[in-house]
Amino acid sequence: xxxxxxxxxxxxxxxxxxxxxxxxxxxxxxxxxxxxxxxxxxxxxxxxxxxxxxxxxxxxxxxxxxxxxxxxxxxxxxxxxxxxxxxxxxxxxxxxxxxxxxxxxxxxxxxxxxxxxxxxxxxxxxxxxxxxxxxxxxxxxxxxxxxxxxxxxxxxxxxxxxxxxxxxxxxxxxxxxxxxxxxxxxxxxxxxxxxxxxxxxxxxxxxxxxxxxxxxxxxxxxxxxxxxxxxxxxxxxxxxxxxxxxxxxxxxxxxxxxxxxxxxxxxxxxxxxxxxxxxxxxxxxxxxxxxxxxxxxxxxxxxxxxxxxxxxxxxxxxxxxxxxxxxxxxxxxxxxxxxx
Length: 340
Ligand code: PEP
Ligand code: MN
Description:
With 340 residues, the chain is α/β, with parallel strands linked by helices.
């Protein structure tokens, strides 16, 4: 970090700051300018209470230099992380191939899910999504099928080879969901549920971490750091749109996060244009834009009867639309040196 002293700060104040920097276990390098003194504190200060220095007499401001996250940052690992999802179709996120994860918002029943799994596989998806535990805004809305839904997802994997991505909402569900799922989805509403992040960090299964509704990129990467710091390096970030003043879509989908994540982190990032827009008619174009922007994967809500879907019918595309869109995505991927 850099500590900038106020104009006219006394020698005594500078000496006091130097003492505090040493107390933090860091070394100081004092630079006396013509107008003010600047002190560089050398060493890893991520775990230090450096904010307190702002409250010290004579200090103007404290500027961190290192990112507050470590394991998630490119400073620590230069090569991109590739996360293998499971299943038998070679699904992975972060390599040259853009991974397509598709399926209904929720598991609604056995026939529906098995049919949908076959359809998304035929369209080219290598992983299946579907919630068995649903975080609903209203307590009266359909909450998901629970363990029965997980059993159906596992059966779909047996039949199709698709990797299964499904949400875990609570610490006490983690073991159960691990029994059936290939990838543990942590939903937007749980991005800052630190106990849950720790618990999924202790598992062997990859984690798809959704960005919180109003989380900054820094908070998002710190949430990934929670998981990684418990021993699980297989974190996939997921941009699912953030809350804004805008009304024409359910959320605002900031695709600039894709190249920015690639600039500062080695973790792969997938885009969810379904929660990201809330409208099926916007989903294909945002999928195309996401691939063009360099996304490592897409997670898409697809339902063969959106009119009767129990959750998120308005934003679910049909398997037919998915298939048509995949043909275009393949061409876009080639243009950006990827594959779909
Ligand atoms: C979902 O994927 O259906 C979902 C609930 O996502 P999010 O946590 O992004 O709202
Ligand atoms: Mn949904």
